[in-house]
Amino acid sequence: MTVPDRLLLVAAGLAGCLGVALSAAAAHVTGGGNLLTAAQFLLFHAPALLALSALGAGGLLHPRLARLSGVVLLLGLVLFCGDLSRRTLSGLPLVPMAAPTGGVLLMIGWLLAGASGLLHRRS
């Protein structure tokens, strides 16, 4: 397993951990709907990052495309979930247009994930 694959595994664990933490925070913060949404996105994408890393490293997906998909998904999560969380906790956006940009990156990441299966050639 390559270093980029291992980093995706670490990112998956971090996404899962943050998803659980934000779920708990959402239960204790008034108006925590955005935190709950961010938590759900993190928890839904953590297994996807694990799968992309493992399947890419195992040769079942196009390895570089699977890694690229994971990186794009990760960037999308940072922007989307980071913006929702920061807006809820501090009232300030992460950066202008962070949530919509993150959402588009998440969609692109999923398309790349599908393409990594279609474009894979078995040796």
UniProtKB/TrEMBL annotation:
Signal sequence region: 1-26
Keywords per UniProt: Membrane, Signal, Transmembrane, Transmembrane helix
Residue intervals passing through the bilayer: 42-61, 68-85, 97-119
Domain of life: Bacteria
Name of protein: DUF423 domain-containing protein
Natural source organism: Microvirga puerhi
Phylogenetic classification of the source organism: Bacteria, Pseudomonadati, Pseudomonadota, Alphaproteobacteria, Hyphomicrobiales
